């Protein structure tokens, strides 16, 4: 008998009969096959989020360019490619992944302040939808390159609108003047006039990305107004834009609530985009995959001292950096509901750093060594920010779709740790 009343739709991650499932698969089965630490993704959850946003934006011509940096696993990208997603990339590596996964080049936009000539050339050759150009230097280099390749590069200038977006951490704010991102607002018009005359450039759109994990529509409205005003201004100069790219950053709830809803976002954004006559692009990453992933980890030891109770797990900051790097909060719960006494714990990893923690001062059922824990909402910026620090092979990744689980990336081996080195 189910211990949790059946939800209207199958929750991607829920306890049934006291055991955490991903869709229809008990996660203990996944651990039995592939061990811990283990990233587990729900294909159904990814599809559902993409479809929600796609439907909300349906009244306006639009493209959702999924931000590959959030989670670039090929199985994730293939799932999204099959839904008609495009990709927002920031490197030649992400271009390679997006193309391998079957995302058509004409649905790819290339962001980032430091694209190399080789990366620009690869993307030009591939025939991507647009380059989000972030400086005059990049604009000129791209024009020269396109000329030597006998091509014109499709371009949007990424404008820095001077908006201090309300994100939970300073590291994820990108819309204010003092960041390295975008063309300063007061320079944008002039640079468009220069771009329109460059022989290797085809001016196509305007781009803005104000930050990540934004939970209200208001900063997006301000950013949109800023760039649609600019588009109008440019039209008077005889420069016609086709689209506005509002970037990513749509926030999710880490505590289990709704976050920024696609409906609220679209209700306020769509009418203004319609007025502008422009096509809409968005570059969400976290919104689509954030809640679609958990990290499973095994408790190694429990240790008490200094007024603290430490739960030491086999996953550390190299596997999940968000708690340490952004003070990111992730729900942690036992995979098998134990009903044990609750208490305050720090969930920490095996890495030799005091900053190696997954949760601090957390009130939870106190687990025993050998038990499994699930760290929730790690589908975005979980594996993609992982490293081999302390010479720890990175975890495996599994994709669950209904009652089927597929290994999406095998666990790294000790040989993988030294494979690229020459000193053997
Ligand atoms: N577009 C651009 C130009 C970006 O720089 C980013 C994220 C996105 C789109 C996607 O943002 P999203 O929709 O996923 O919020 N590692 C941090 C987040 C860094 C975001 C970097 N840029 C974290 O774990 O919170």
What does this structure look like?
With 424 residues, the chain is of the alpha/beta class. It has 2 domains: 111-284, TIM Barrel; 291-418, Lyase, Ornithine Decarboxylase, Chain A, domain 1, CATH 2.40.37. 29% of the residues lie in helices and 26% in strands. It has 12 helices and 21 strands. The chain has helices spanning 27-34, 43-56, 74-81, 92-100, 117-126, 136-148, 185-197, 218-236, 262-276, 286-289, 322-326, 414-418; strands at residues 13-16, 19-22, 25-26, 38-42, 62-67, 86-89, 108-110, 130-133, 153-160, 183-184, 201-207, 243-245, 279-282, 293-305, 308-313, 332-334, 342-348, 357-365, 372-375, 396-401, 404-409. The strands form 3 sheets. Strands 4, 14, 15, 16, 17, 18, 19, 20 and 21 form a 9-stranded mixed sheet that branches. Strands 5-6-7-8-9-11-12-13 form an 8-stranded parallel beta barrel, surrounded by 5 helices. Strand 2 and strand 3 (25-26) form a beta hairpin. Helix 5 packs across helix 6 and helix 8 packs parallel to helix 9. The longest helix is centred in the middle third of the chain and has 19 residues, at 218-236. It is globular. Ligand LLP binds at residues 67, 70, 88, 111, 172, 209, 212-213, 247-250, 283-287, 322, 326, 380-381.
SSE topology:
Blueprint: E1 13-16, E2 19-22, E3 25-26, H1 27-34, E4 38-42, H2 43-56, E5 62-67, H3 74-81, E6 86-89, H4 92-100, E7 108-110, H5 117-126, E8 130-133, H6 136-148, E9 153-160, E10 183-184, H7 185-197, E11 201-207, H8 218-236, E12 243-245, H9 262-276, E13 279-282, H10 286-289, E14 293-305, E15 308-313, H11 322-326, E16 332-334, E17 342-348, E18 357-365, E19 372-375, E20 396-401, E21 404-409, H12 414-418
Parallel strand pairs: 4-20, 5-6, 5-13, 6-7, 7-8, 8-9, 9-10, 9-11, 11-12, 12-13, 15-17
Antiparallel strand pairs: 1-2, 2-3, 4-14, 14-15, 14-19, 16-19, 17-18, 20-21
Helix pairs in contact: 5-6, 8-9
Bound molecules: ligand LLP.
